[in-house]
Automatic annotation (TrEMBL):
A GO molecular-function descriptor: metal ion binding
Main localization of the protein described in the UniProt heading: cytoplasm
Family stated for the protein in its record: Belongs to the TsaE family.
Record keyword Transferase present: no
Gene Ontology terms: cellular component: cytoplasm
GO biological processes: tRNA threonylcarbamoyladenosine modification
Record's keyword terms, sorted: ATP-binding, Cytoplasm, Magnesium, Metal-binding, Nucleotide-binding, tRNA processing
Cellular location(s): Cytoplasm
Protein name, entry field: tRNA threonylcarbamoyladenosine biosynthesis protein TsaE
InterPro entries, per database record: P-loop_NTPase, T6A_TsaE
Amino acid sequence: MTSPRAVLTLTSPEATCALASQLATRLSPGDVLLLSGGIGAGKTHFARCLIHALQDPPEDVPSPTFTLVQVYDTAAGELWHADLYRLSDPDQCEELGLADAFETAICLVEWPDRLEDLAPADALSLSFDAGAAEDSRALTLDWSDPRWDAIVTELTA
């Protein structure tokens, strides 16, 4: 059985931000988003827009490339934004406390391939690629947990 999949074209950085804001309102602690794609594909832009949508007022959201994890208090609960690009071993993910955060916080994980088998099976995977037009992105969403069915349907309507 194959997992459900949706493919979207995001025509601009503003469209990417709008989708992130829509998704933000549907998230709660225990939700994990796995953001993949090459450097410059739009992962951090998406994450920043999603975090801003949950903050009142929005605060500075730096890329966690060097800090590895940034934690935010939001109206929806604690949110962890992790950038695993610099990690070389999944054990380092355990040391960061990500396994616990997957259960208690909203988690956005860039470079989720670094998690290997630590990636939660019920996560929503978002894969960003350059689109055909300048500044556009092709976004593929994959999931196995039925919880995401209605959410993705609403986002793609």
